[in-house]
Amino acid sequence: MRYRLLSAFVASATIVLAADPAVYDYIVVGSGPGGGPLAADLARAGFSTLLIEAGGDEGDNPTYSELYTFNEAANDEATRWDFWVKHSDDPVRDLKFHHTTWDTGDGTFYVGLDPPEDAKLLGIQYPRAAVLGGCAMHNAGVCSLPQDDDWNIIVNKTGDTSWEASKMRKYLERIEKNEYLATGVEGHGYDGYLATSRGDASWVKDETNPATKIFKKMAELTGLDPNKVVEYADGDILAADEPKDFTNAFYNMVQHGGRDGKRASPNNYIRATLADPKKYPLTVKLQTLVTKVLFNTTGTVPQAIGVEIMEGASLYRADPKHKAGTKGPVSQIYAKKEVIVSGGAFNTPQILKLSGVGPKEELAKFNISLVKDLPGVGANLGDNYEGSILALANSPIASGLITLLFRTPTAPTKKRNIFTWCGSFSFEGFWPGFPTDYGPKQYECALVHMAPKSQAGTVTLRSADPQDVPEINFRFFENGGEEDLKELVDAANIMREAWQAAGDPALPFEELHPCPGPQGATRGANCTEEVQKEYFKTQAYSHHATSSAAIGADDDPMAVLDSKFRVRGINGLRVVDASAFPVVPGAFPSLPTMMLSAKAAEVILAEFGIVPS
Ligand SMILES: Cc1cc2nc3c(=O)[nH]c(=O)nc-3n(C[C@H](O)[C@H](O)[C@H](O)COP(=O)(O)OP(=O)(O)OC[C@H]3O[C@@H](n4cnc5c(N)ncnc54)[C@H](O)[C@@H]3O)c2cc1C
Ligand SMILES: *[C@@H]1O[C@H](CO)[C@@H](O)[C@H](O)[C@H]1NC(C)=O
Ligand SMILES: *[C@@H]1O[C@H](CO)[C@@H](O)[C@H](O)[C@H]1NC(C)=O
Ligand SMILES: *[C@@H]1O[C@H](CO)[C@@H](O)[C@H](O)[C@H]1NC(C)=O
Ligand SMILES: *[C@@H]1O[C@H](CO)[C@@H](O)[C@H](O)[C@H]1NC(C)=O
């Protein structure tokens, strides 16, 4: 990003490089889609910025720099942080999750529901990446925009109209380097750090391909024109000009990666900023765990003045390489202007709580001295529900991916609620060694619920030890659960019906789940709504956690941030990452978080009269 100074006077008065190298203007904690681009933007605008990241830099490691190896990346011990999460308060229900993971005690995991005698229950794996670039370095790079109301709700809550969906578009334009459309398409960007590309959809032209037949039937079942599938397959999911949220539509899947297959992420942007001949004042400190934010509490309002760090690799116990008892040297680093916490939806609330910012009772339990009672820290955790309908076809189906965003009949609003993509793959959630491979005949429609109603999840401390992993309970389906389950079942039923159009030799499909067995056009007695609801209730998985330190209204005691990302009741402290979204931002949070990060840069720099050019 480039910057233009609104007033040379203001700029020369405020942009001073830190004289003492151990004191920075800004300290940013965490280099993912939230913190990484923000730190680069602040440095590019002339502010001395320290970016602290617990992991290392794998930008030159092909497992990470190539996008198609994303499953290997998410399994890789080089960066993996294992969070063993709960999906509910009911241990019996959670123990029905087929890929429940156990520690056998001999350095291996057992995955399944019949563990060896002495195995210790770990829970449901939720992998995250501790690495320069955060989870954008191991994710699948799938791009979609939030629903407009996911931005607009911030306007409603805070009165800050700069969050209107139409005004958020410019951040996509600013960060994108579009490689799949002709240059100059309105609403897209072509010189940002984030390459976007998509695959070849020409397979759809083959009318004999069973996947094309399925695609046509999906169109028919969702009110679209089966004769237009070739046109639909070219649909741009990031387009500015479509009446998006209220229209069922197909798209060719877009990923944050280049046409050369290379992953695009904050890692590229940070490295480009460091390598730039303009010598921007960015310092990156890797393999450093931030243990807390430091405050000056002598005034009436606490002021964030720096962070405490512990230096070393694999210090956090979520890291499978962590060795019990390992610690590193502890020291303090100071910020003249602000500390920005961007540790992601699990670590941001943990860092705030360890620093004394969070629910009073919880902090008291661990003898953490209270800086600011903010009961919303670690609450409101949300995530997309994901599940799938998976089968073995009678013969392999070769095709690209079909992506469809559509509304199921009972969705509470007129907005579409399900993002699905179908093809010959298997994705059933996370466990050490995921995914399963059922061979060339596997065929799946993955289902993402875009507007989950629950958001009753929590991130709570287990101890005051910053090397400890907090307890994470998503409380799936706690609010509006029956409705969301019904919507997932309806989506699965539509996909199953579409499959019956695949024709010979692909049919019949032997379904693996939710309804095991040969399911024809009329579902067997085993495939009731109840059976399928139970399946999704116990087997839904997630990896898009957000909203655990959310922006909210002035009069909402659960609000953690104001509309300028400032932690309420504290000076010099912001949160910029996926934790800030009040509601789950559509089906895929990575791109929305990078847009939010670009907005944060603009908001912060505006205070110095600097506007992005
Ligand atoms: C397996 C997987 C696949 C996914 N696939 C997709 C996808 O296809 N499309 C999509 O849109 N989204 C996907 N996501 C989600 C997406 O990647 C995340 O929502 C996004 O990365 C969130 O960005 P963030 O900046 O909030 O947090 P993160 O990306 O988690 O970044 C936080 C960073 O902070 C660092 N950190 C944390 N605590 C500390 C500390 N105490 N001290 C120092 N550093 C710290 C971490 O090491 C990490 O690098 C996927 C996620 C996972 C886990
Ligand atoms: C915002 O508030 C208006 C007026 O109350 C309401 O009609 C609209 O649905 C709200 N939008 C969101 C996204 O909450
Ligand atoms: C702490 O804040 C007080 C009052 O706001 C100020 O006078 C003092 O200089 C600050 N101390 C530090 C170490 O920043
Ligand atoms: C908190 O402090 C009290 C009093 O010093 C002590 O008894 C208690 O064990 C401490 N609790 C924790 C969790 O450290
Ligand atoms: C229905 O379930 C029964 C009992 O679990 C099983 O034996 C049978 O094969 C199933 N039928 C189908 C069509 O899946």
Automatic annotation (TrEMBL):
Cofactor(s) required, per the database record: FAD
InterPro entries in alphabetical order: FAD/NAD-bd_sf, GMC_OxRdtase, GMC_OxRdtase_N, GMC_OxRtase_C
Transmembrane regions: none
Pfam families, per database record: GMC_oxred_C, GMC_oxred_N
Signal peptide: 1-18
Keyword Acetylation appears in the UniProt entry: no
Entry annotated with the keyword Magnesium: no
A single GO molecular function term of this UniProt record: oxidoreductase activity, acting on CH-OH group of donors
UniProt similarity note: Belongs to the GMC oxidoreductase family.
Protein name: Glucose-methanol-choline oxidoreductase N-terminal domain-containing protein
Organism: Rhypophila decipiens
